[in-house]
Amino acid sequence: MTPQDATWWKSAVVYQIYPRSFADSNGDGFGDLGGIIERLGYLQALGVDVIWLSPIYPSPQADNGYDVSDYRDIDPLFGTLAEFDVLLAEIHERGMKLVMDLVVNHTSDEHPWFIESRSSRHNPKRDWYIWRDSRAAAEPNNWGSFFSGPAWTWDQVTGQYYLHLFDRKQPDLNWENPAVRKAMQDIMVWWLDRGVDGFRMDVVNFISKARGLPDAPTIPGHQFVIAVDEFVDGPHVHEYLAETTREVFGSRDGQFITVGEMPGVTPDQARLYTDPARGELNMVFQFEHVSVDQSPANKFEYLGLDLVVLKESLYRWQGALADIGWNSLYWENHDQPRVVSRFGDDDPDYWAASAKALATILHGMRGTPFVYQGEELGMTNYPFSSARDHQDLEAVNYYTSVVELSGDEIAALAGLGAMSRDNARTPMQWGPGHNAGFTSGEPWMPVNPNHTWLNAESQFTAPDSVFAHYQELIRLRHELPILVHGDLTPLMAADPQIWAYSRRAPESAILVIANCGREPRAVDVGAEWIGAGLLLGNLPDTPGALTSTSLQLAGWDARIYAAG
Ligand code: TEU
After folding, report:
1. Which PANTHER family does the record match to this protein (predicted)?
2. Cβ contacts of residue 479 below 8 Å, gap of 6+?
């Protein structure tokens, strides 16, 4: 049974764990599998159905595990395969599923495949990676790395460059080579045989590059350019994905889930990737809505939020996949800043209400919601104050390149403070005490000082906590088919502060409405909503039923009403 056959994942909620920062059981300052096992009860209480683990394979950790040196083992930093088997059994025992994060576009430069490939131009694995001669004594083309600088590194031993869209320690695999595709498919079969329930596939829409690796259109002042038109949604990507799903899942019984991470994917392309008839993926992570506040040329150039633009972006995706395919729904992950600081209001007076309001808006939509560790608590960005606070190579490389180019350290730090991936990687805040209960050792990343009041312990049983609100949203999704299958109609789409939409099914309708600002607002809703009952609110004393078409919304007031 391929993942397309079963649609259990349409009513599921997925929780992403970044193991390095989740829970440390052996006091080395890094999260590990033992820590996850200890916290499964917390996740079961939250109500999530699937756990997605960011990579836990052996890795030099240049990109915190997204540089894999052995796909069939567990990095000692996190534990062992035997501990993994215990974790998987415990997850299944609790009625949840486990998704592995498969880094398919590239390996570590310390993977045996690359060590062989770089050993000689005539090595059988030479063509497993993308090697090219220099061009006019320079890089083969003008492609830039996502992590600053060129996407090519010269290899002295064999006198050629190799391609790496990310760090030089992350050489891109050549998916045009059937042996590479087979090797990746065998790895997926190996993990499925071990009992896992699916995969999140890292930058999977980058695996097919444009023929001839042509130059990207130049940008004045930039020697290297991130060549999205030359490697996003490339010529053979659909063919490779359909082949992989067929070879890996085709003859296998079970209920699986596959999600492809796809920077730059368009709604039209996503219809193709997630159309069940094409047998490629269940859903994709698109990046449009998490780019609306960034300069297209520089993610660290923060433009501020225009709510109408954000609404339009998510509605575009709701519309595109309304009849064919399926949306993932997310605000956060290990690469994104904390949503309450980004799109909400992390002032202590509005922090909780805005975190709940943003959760209400997202979880009321059509698609599969993904909750990133700590998002269910309303964890905020970290108060970075110096370059030394940053550990993510993307951030460190960006800071270095800006300071070298312009010397403008203030601008570099301002961009990192708002947008750095480090914001999502500070330790999970379990309690108010030492290191937020994350580790008994020295944490690898600093713990946010606000853990003294912002933590799981203070929210776990509190009925008005952000955690409790996520529990309710997840419960509603499990109980109300209209939240899974109902049509979505935007309301007040042009309003710069109110976010409202309806969900409709033949016999019922739901109204989701939120005030995304501090100023109270009076809004008019259609007469059809009179008598609608409150399913969920985020403030005390929210009226239980709508008795008039006029709603008085307080600051960051968010509500779900059910009519009919
Ligand atoms: O991220 C790919 C991606 O979206 C990059 O754009 C990344 O978000 C970065 O912010 C560039 O702006 C995936 C993983 O999620 C990320 O953690 C890895 O660093 C990357 O691929 C390489 O494996």
Report:
1. ALPHA-AMYLASE FAMILY MEMBER (PTHR10357), NEUTRAL AND BASIC AMINO ACID TRANSPORT PROTEIN RBAT (PTHR10357:SF179)
2. none
